[in-house]
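Exercise 3.2. Students should predict the tertiary structure of the chain below and write it as structure tokens, then compare their answer with the key that follows.

Predict this chain's 3D structure.
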Amino acid sequence: MKGKLFIIIQLMQIVIIALSFSFLINGCNCIPCNEKEEAQIPIEVLKKADQFIISKTGDEFFKKYITADFLQSKHIAPNYLMVYKFYMPEKQFVDELIRFTVDSTGKVLTQYEVVGIPSCNTNPNDCDFVVDEKIARQIAIENGLPKGIKDWKIDFAWESKYNKYVWHLLSTLKERKGDFGYRANGEQIVIDPNNSSVIYQDSWQIK
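Answer key:
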């Protein structure tokens, strides 16, 4: 009985060793995930895309806060949609995406929208982001934004019209839902996150 038990234990050990060896072999042949992701974007295209952002933000700002998002970047033949993450750990409300399109050589295609790249080089103040959500709320209150019938909708987002990031606070005064669809109106305010100034304030309406 003891002899059979010994044989069984030895067989189990052999199986475990064989499985471990197989895992190591497969592990060595496996391409790391990040390499698979990077392989979707040619290195020369990536370098030129990086340089395009750096030309606007500066090298130090780019290295500190901006990283390529290989999961969302994609090849849309014959061009490439480039997506980058823009995140500032010390100002966690700055957590956005940069997007633009380049051709097969890495040249930026200006006929497509360029989203989310702050112009730190030409206007360093546009990269301060000293106004957080709490301050933005206080500015909105001081400028008379109504409380409304529900919580304000507050977004830190890229505003293509001004080519910069803004705080957008929206107050809803009335809303109705029915067979006719959704109707609502209210007021809104847009605030510069770099200097606390009110860019514009007006009413909005969905008919």
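Discussion points: The helical segments are 2-29, 33-38, 43-57, 59-65, 133-142. The chain has two domains: 34-127, 133-206.
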